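By convention, each integer encodes one residue's backbone shape. The lines below illustrate.
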Amino acid sequence: MRVFLLCRISVFLLFLVLPSFVCGVCPLFDLGTPPTNNATVPNISVYNEALDSLNVSAVFDDLYFVMRDSRECWPADTFNNESSYGPLFVRLAWHCSGTFRITDSVGGCGGGRQRFWPEASWDDNVNLDKARALLAPIKRRYGDALSWGDLFVFAGTAAIMEMGGPITKVCYGRIDSENGALSEPLGPGPEAPECPVQGNCSEPLGADTIGLIYVNPEGVVNASGTPDPDPYTSALRIRNVFGRMGMNDTETVALIGGGHAFGKAHGACPDGPGLSPDDAPNDPWPGMCGTGMAEDTYTSGIEGQWTTTPLQWDNDFFQLLLASAQYNLTVGVGGKFQWMNPSGLMMLTTDLALVSDDAYKTIVEEFASSLEALNLAFDAAWYKLTNSGGVWAQNSQCLNVMDWSLVSTTANTTTTTETPTASENTDWFIVGIVFIVLFVVALAVIAFLSYMMHSNRRDQSGKGKYVRASNGAAAETQLAEQTDEE
């Protein structure tokens, strides 16, 4: 019985730790998306003291390294033979910050609540659990001094700068939340204002769809509940929704076009991303297309890149918008409405909306002809976006990025700084495999030793067994003697 008990305990322990290594999740995933939906945070006095010791320049150096260090657990997108998590980190910071609404001042990246329900399971946040996992080693390195809210904004800001974008200031001192309670008014759930028709939510809700950051990229949802890919109708909706977020027309155009200067949309097939963190807390959004990652990634269901240089800041997006007549409506491989031009570049219905409205189009023309004008507008809009909402420490600060040497000295290449914890010496996947092998060997040794001990006890008792002897007669004599003694 003891042998069986040992084996059963060993197998239980194996299956307890095995998912951390064999599932398609990155190491420290559970720090960025806690399966328990809550986390320990330092009290305010401890955080204030730790914040004074934060080396922001070192954090940015670590971010620049991680950005170019493509991991097997979630490979970075590759464009023109370059790989980078930059666009992923921009999306992370944007979606964390873009929850803020001026209607009731709910939302914002302060609190770092994207780690928890409900934000963690929003449709617009598909696969951002991977981004948070990639950043978790940096969080662990700096401990209480670096809040998750600051880390998310730092990551997106560093990505923009690393890809050549215009950033002049960065602020830190956001106080983390221990759960997602303060995000519950964003929905879904009873704490959120009612939205009778998904896709047409009104104030005080910010987005027009619960689970999205702003608007449906395919178009405004019509009476039948399906998106209508009409750019002009989307333009009216964009102005309304971005207004709820506190953004004017110039800020709106700068953020949409500036954000879409980077990266691509992912919709490799129509089968979706899989279960959310709420339904599969240990391995959310595995992806139902092929491997579920790299070229098989499903995020929004829309597939394609906006520009020819997705890892480089420029105003090409706006120049392409002015050639909107070249874009034709289609249903992509992910089953969603999108617009394609002859060169294979993509636009969303909400992108083309910016040239379907006269006021927006005037701003697009300005940005298309003047990169300097775009730089000034985007810098101001990004600062406003990422610093709205949340609770801040009394010793929070804003730094000039040039004065504090926060700009990557080797933009678009791997930095030469010391490798952060994210990549320290050990490949965690190999560690997992070695651990499993050693565990199985140890299990076999335990079973063998237990068997030998059990066999020895039976031999020593001798009941019902012949005792070995040099010949048959001796054996019979020994057996008789044992029987007499019993």
Summary: Confidence is low (pLDDT under 50) at residues 1-23, 412-431, 463-486. The first strand starts at residue 77 and ends at 79. The longest helix spans residues 428-461. The CA atoms of residues 185 and 192 lie 4 Å apart.
